[in-house]
Amino acid sequence: MTMNEDTRFPRGDRFAVTYKVDEHDCLEYSAGLQALGHDVYYMNWNDLDGPQLTRMYHANAGRFVEPLPLEAMNLIWIYQMEGFYAERARFLHMVEIFENACPLVVNDPRTIRHNLGKTYLWELERHGVRVIPTYRIDEFIGQRLTAGASLVLKPVYGDRGNGIFLAQTPSALDPVARSFDDYIAQDYVPSVRDGEKSLMYLGRDFHHAVIKRPSPDVAGEFRCNESLGGTVDLYEPTDSELRFADNVLQVYASLGCPVHFSRIDFIDDAEGPLLMEAELLNPAAFANYSGKGRAFGEKVAAYFDKLIQTQSASQAQPQDSGPSALRA
After folding, report:
1. Which residue, 10, 17, 225, 325, has fewest beta-carbon neighbours within 10 Å?
2. How many angstroms separate the CA atoms of 46 and 118, rounded?
């Protein structure tokens, strides 16, 4: 399991997790996998040297151990990595190394590559998903702003709300004038102030949901990220919202992109849900907000265990008679 490591702590015999808000869910995942008999290892992607790791933390033993070869892993979960959007070539090289070494990578490398940049929204829209109207930044964007439109500009490659801003005049484009290809523009939908709904899935099975709202203390704030003062509350999705999210996952699968661990984010307009993002790469699960952190950890573990068992069965030869060692 790739993890963000808090390097403010001395590098002793401890793996410190960076973001307590969402990444401490990993402790529940780890406990669930261990309860099923798996060995769980945490990896800092900065410790990848060529095709192997120089450091590896064995969660079962609670200490660092001599790194196992990646080929010994039954499943590699690309869960969290610090700063990977700024180092995409290095990140994609890591995905390729994992893909070549291990029969199971979550999410599937094809899905990771497709979901890495927000341009995937156009493909989902072409396949019938209602998406917040999304545009390339060109001369027509300036015309729309002159006509009074409000547009949200987002980096194609980015997370945690970094680099997102509201444009309401043509001059607002000046800071990105030399990097239009690095941004997309979306219509500003006022209902974002009412909340962004996030539904968490394992495969096609819904587990829990939250609603994220912008900071109530900052007038005009539209970003829901907690780092910017946003709030998170439990949410019970409607049947139509569940159908909407399930359709997003179904469309993704139809593109040849298997989805195992995902979060579907949307807001509403007068006609229903509008997809904001399909988070298929290190989505914060907000499991402990739901009060179902342990249950979700057990469900993640059972889901991964089934993936491993299915993969092992498909690779087994008739002469195999003993159980295989399982590591996640």
Report:
1. 10
2. 25
Give Cβ neighbours of residue 239 (< 8 Å, ≥ 6 apart).
Answer: none
Same domain, 63 and 181: no
Residues 125 and 61 placed together within one structural domain of the fold: no
Task: Give backbone dihedrals phi and psi of 114, rounded to 5 degrees, phi first.
Answer: -70, -35
115 vs 279: CA distance, rounded Å:
8
33 occurs within a structural domain: yes
* Other Cβ atoms within 10 Å of 80 Cβ, number: 23
Distance separating alpha carbons of residues 191 and 257, to the nearest angstrom: 31
C-alpha 122/C-alpha 135 separation (Å) is: 9
For 32, the enclosing helix (H) or strand (E) is: helix 25-35
The predicted-structure confidence for 39-98, as pLDDT tens digits, reads as follows: 999 999 999 998 999 999 999 999 999 999 999 999 999 998 878 888 999 999 999 999
Contact 222, 193 (CB under 8 A): yes
Token reading at 175: 């800071």
Q: What is the pLDDT of residues 178-227, one digit of tens each?
A: 888 889 999 999 888 889 999 999 999 999 999 988 877 777 777 777 66
- Cα–Cα dist 120/137, whole Å: 16
Exposed (0-12), middle (13-18) or buried (19+): which is 8, by Cβ within 10 Å?
exposed
**Alpha-carbon dihedral 207, 123, 223, 219, rounded to 10 degrees:** -130
